[in-house]
Amino acid sequence: MKDGYLQEFSRRLESMIPALIRTGRNLEVRRLSRYSLTLPQFFALAVLESNGSCMMKELGEELGLSLGTVTGIIDRLIREGFVERYSDERDRRVVRVRLSSKGKEVMEKIHEERRRALEERMREFSEEELSQLLETVVRIGTLFSRESVER
What is the pTM of this model? Predict the structure, then answer.
């Protein structure tokens, strides 16, 4: 591959990324507002969904937020019934948080809405194009995750 082509490709892609992020963020904010959720609250729910449960410190580290910020997010999610606090069975001094049944239900609804929205937008592509797109996105994800591990 010629350097000139790669430079032009990188320039064009780099110029598109902010618009893609902004559009995705705006769509997500609108979707989440139907459940009275903010993006940081959703990210906390997503970590809990993935991990099962966490101590507040672990959640803060995973989200890249201070303990005080995470505490505020979790307090609001508890008030709304999406998350519950509980004492660790092995050490009662340790407090953990997890999704409540309402939190699990809302996350499933959000995932389903996202899937439907993606399906609707992707109808314009052929199966071959979708297959190539998915393969490329997976490959890009692998390259970027490998880069973040190396740093």
Answer: 0.83
